Amino acid sequence: MPATGNAIIGQSGGPTSVINASLVGVVDAARKSKTIGRVFGMRFGIEGVLNNFLLDLGAESAETLKALRSTPSSALGSSRLKLQEEHFEPILKQLKKYDIRYFFMIGGNDTMDTIHRVVEYANEHGWEMTGVGVPKTVDNDLFGTDHTPGFPSAARYVALSVQQGALLARDMQRVDQFTIFQTVGRSAGWLPAAAACARKNAGDAPHIILCPEHSFNRDRFLSAVSDTHSKRGFVSIVCGEGITNPDGSPVSASQTKDKFDNVEFGAMGGASVGMQLHRMIADEFGWRGEFQVTESLQMCAADRALKSDIDSAYACGREAVRLAQQGHGGVMVTIERTSKPDEKYASKFGTIPLHEVANHERPMPANYFTKDGMNVSKKFLDYASPLIGKLPEYASLTIRKAGVANRE
Question: Does the active-site annotation cover 28?
Answer without folding.
Answer: no
